[in-house]
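Re: that backbone. Tokens:
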């Protein structure tokens, strides 16, 4: 959806031309990318650049998760979901995602967001002492501060748990 200022700029630039023709329309369409770039600045980062996610094994009972969030981007707290998949004998214990910064969002209402970085630990509940390979599935969503949001993202990370001591 075009914002009113952008719509005004496009309309006045297009229709104020003294030689309005079909060629002008073609030129406007060809230059739309440059117009967008000039109005909104740099191109958007790819999702993996805007929200760099990683997970690691802290010890036999704890995983550590981390997001490095690019400047001018944010991550929604309410959209973060974590679970272990494709594994028996290990499950996530109770964990708390840290509090974020309050924000009123046009699409989601009152939410909490993270800027810069987010990291926390995930306790594990294990049924035996064996070495386990686990798959951590993480779902999350974030936006650029200029008002463009990314589709929900899903990552799977395979981690090797050491024997329980």
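Recovered sequence:
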């Amino acid at each position: 959806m075009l914002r009113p200022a952008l719509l005004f700029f496009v309309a006045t630039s297009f229709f104020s031309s003294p030689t309005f023709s079909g060629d002008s329309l073609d030129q406007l369409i060809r230059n739309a990318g440059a117009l967008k770039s000039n109005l909104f600045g740099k191109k958007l980062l790819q999702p993996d650049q805007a929200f760099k996610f990683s997970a690691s094994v802290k010890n036999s009972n704890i995983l550590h998760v981390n997001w490095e969030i690019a400047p001018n981007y944010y991550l929604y707290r309410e959209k973060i979901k974590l679970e272990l998949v494709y594994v028996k004998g290990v499950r996530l214990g109770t964990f708390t995602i840290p509090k974020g910064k309050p924000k009123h969002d046009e699409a989601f209402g009152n939410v909490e967001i993270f800027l810069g970085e987010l990291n926390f630990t995930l306790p594990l509940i294990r049924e035996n002492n064996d070495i386990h390979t686990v798959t951590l599935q993480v779902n999350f969503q974030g936006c650029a501060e200029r008002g463009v949001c990314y589709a929900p993202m899903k990552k799977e990370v395979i981690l090797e748990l050491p024997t329980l001591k």
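Helices lie at 4-15, 22-30, 32-40, 47-50. The chain has two domains: 4-40, 47-161.
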